[in-house]
Write a structure and sequence with these properties.
Layout (H helix, E strand, L loop, with lengths): L13 H7 L14 H25 L3 H6 L13 H4 L7 H32 L5 H10 L5 H14 L7 H4 L7 H12 L4 H8 L4 H12 L1 H16 L3 H6 L8 H7 L12 H36 L3
Keywords: Cell membrane, Membrane, Transmembrane, Transmembrane helix, Transport
Subcellular location: Cell membrane
Membrane topology: Multi-pass membrane protein
Length: 308
């Protein structure tokens, strides 16, 4: 009787293991951190940076280059004095800047206060018809701003607010539907047990709002303030409708008026106009750089809570 033993199976090689391993389908996540992604981002960033590079180049060009129309990516003469010359024109550019700061900061304060109060009320208070009223508020986002432009102008004209800052600032103290929605979604994520514990300690709704909920709402309120600052700093249509005096114009409208300093058939001072455009853009870029994390958090908060 012969005893035979089976030969041991050969150890699988790396190529065999790779062949047996089921291949995962290549999804979009496979390109997230690869050279393709970085290359694509580099190309897109370069394309989007081209207008900004030309703005800076024209702002640093001399009057002769602007008059001749010979503009290059890098100016031949670096005229940094253009940033001081813009304040020596016949227009009050310094007042334009101050007016923009007043309108933007006051509007941001109004939006933050009104949005936090109304959003807290929709999230925490119990009242009959609250859901219907919230639906109506959200539905107002579907109304184009051009429809309410003429009635608003008639109302503000009857109040005697034309050629003042009031038509630009006062509506911001009544919030808007988008900011109310964001605050409500953020507050609904905060546990209701905090309210119950505060009520046991004797706090009312105003105390709960001001001492408990408001500090927790700071990230979303900072994001709303950034959005409002950005919108009001670059707003052109509102000041064009309501502001008539030069000394009350904000910078967004004043930059357009720089073209009026040129006479007929004369080339506008594009280098000074581009300097004004840089003044119009640079503060918003700085604000976005320092506040972008709050805007990301705001989007996550609004999306994760869901509409209830």
């Amino acid at each position: 009787m012969s005893l035979t033993t089976a030969a041991p199976a050969p150890a699988p090689t790396a190529a065999t293991r790779d062949a047996r391993r089921p291949r995962r389908p290549r999804t979009l996540s496979a390109f997230r951190s690869g050279p393709f992604t970085y290359g694509l981002l580099l190309i897109l960033s370069t394309i989007f940076m081209v207008p900004l590079v030309f703005v800076i180049s024209i702002a640093l060009s001399s009057d002769a280059s602007v008059s001749s129309g010979q503009l290059f990516v890098l100016p031949r003469e670096w005229e940094f004095a253009n940033f001081a010359r813009i304040f020596q024109t016949s227009l009050p550019v310094g007042s334009f800047l101050v007016n923009s700061v007043i309108i933007s900061v006051t509007s941001a304060v109004g939006q933050v206060l009104s949005s936090s109060i109304v959003g807290y009320a929709f999230a925490r208070l119990r009242a009959p018809g609250k859901k219907v009223l919230f639906f109506v508020v959200i539905a107002t986002m579907m109304i184009p701003a051009q429809i309410t432009m003429i009635p608003q102008f008639w109302i503000f004209s009857e109040l005697g607010w034309v050629d003042t800052f009031l038509p630009l600032i006062v509506p911001q103290f009544f919030s808007n539907a988008f900011n109310i929605f964001l605050v409500r979604q953020f507050v609904t994520r905060i546990p209701f047990e905090m309210d119950e514990a505060a009520q046991i300690d004797g706090l009312g709704h105003f105390g709960i709002y001001s001492r408990l909920i408001l500090p927790l709402m700071m990230p979303i309120l900072i994001a709303i303030a950034i959005f409002t600052l950005t919108a009001m700093w670059g707003d052109f249509m509102g000041p064009l409708i309501y502001i008539n005096s030069e000394d009350k114009m904000p910078l967004a409208l004043g930059v357009q008026y720089l073209t009026s300093t040129s006479q007929e058939l004369q080339t506008p001072p594009w280098n000074l106009i581009m300097v004004g455009s840089i003044f119009l853009s640079l503060p918003m870029i700085i604000i976005y750089y320092f506040g972008q994390k709050y805007m990301y958090e705001m989007n996550l908060s609004a999306g994760s809570a869901g509409a209830k």
